[in-house]
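Lecture notes, unit on binding sites. The following record was shown on slide 14. It pairs a sequence with adenosine-5'-triphosphate.
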Amino acid sequence: MAEIQITNLRKEFGNFVAVENSSFTVRDGEFFMLLGPSGCGKTTTLRMMAGLELPTAGQIFIDGEDVTQRRARDRDIAFVFQMYALYPHFNVFKNLAYPLTSQGMAKKDVMEKIDQVADILDIRHLLKSPVSRLSGGDRQRVALGRAIVREPKAFFMDEPLGALDAEFREQMAGELRGLHDRMGSTTIYVTHDQLEAMQMGDKIVVMNHGVIEQFGSPQEIYDWPATKFVADFIGSPAMNFLPLKTDISKGDSKVELGGQEFFIPEALEDFSGDIFFGVRPEHVSFDDSSLFRASVDAVEYLGTTQLITLQSACGSLKARIESGRQIEVGAKLGLSFDRRTITLFNSNSGKALLNRENHQVIRHG
Ligand code: ATP
């Protein structure tokens, strides 16, 4: 299997910069997600890594070897596009055999490989069926099988579950992750779906407008978003953001919310004193003694939890609490925040002022 490294990768289409100065390493055996909204440069990054697109600048290494100028077929990777890229007039066996026979593999070895893959994907009973008669899920498995039989160094997948309905998508996501764990393969996976990325990924790169906003494990990205964009993009509903001001001309190094003080670690160059106070809905607590008051605009029952929409003097926010608690629309409640769970963002740059390193001092006040 493979370790893949990209350094300072850039792609221009005419005057438009689709990917800007991207660098990251995908470790051997990792399930690695490229995540971001439509048009942010995920597919372009993946295509450059796969050798389907030449970078304008930067380098790509597979197992330490510079493959930047090498064509896709010489990189020993398997690209799994949106599923169903199968030969409809062949049966399943022939679809699986084709990548091998076209490489000149002996019939006996082909049989052996297909035997293994049929077991891994549980499609032995389908080998003689025409592809055109298969269900969506079975086609998906066969498409994966075609990538697996080649035993590539890495799998590259571009929104492979994009065409599926929600329920089936979730099932296939679980199957893909299970398959990855059994095979120990390096997988690079493009998605715009943050839940899919969190559910399946070991590591996530979050992209926006061609730039990497953050790189880390799902938990690092959720707990310690590096930017307001990431905090907003990850989590459903998104993090709450309340605009607050400090007077930096007076050397003020804290913001205050209803009597609670939150310290700002350092005044950055582009820091004007305007801050976004960020708190996830599950970290908003109700506290009668708090001076920070908000009125209840809406209550949405979600089964195990309920989502409360609140209106405060600093703007609206959402709280997620256990569903047993009775909350009335129109009620006025006090809100409090645990320092360990909040984040502050520089409103100019969108960068987080609290990070893993400085949180001991700051979050614990
Ligand atoms: P999506 O999920 O919508 O495919 P993406 O994040 O994968 O989004 P890319 O497909 O990488 O985005 O495209 C990034 C940007 O580059 C987009 O604005 C797109 O229009 C542009 N782009 C991609 N390929 C080309 C091309 N061949 N010529 C010109 N512009 C392109």
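Take-home: The two ends are 46 Å apart (CA to CA).
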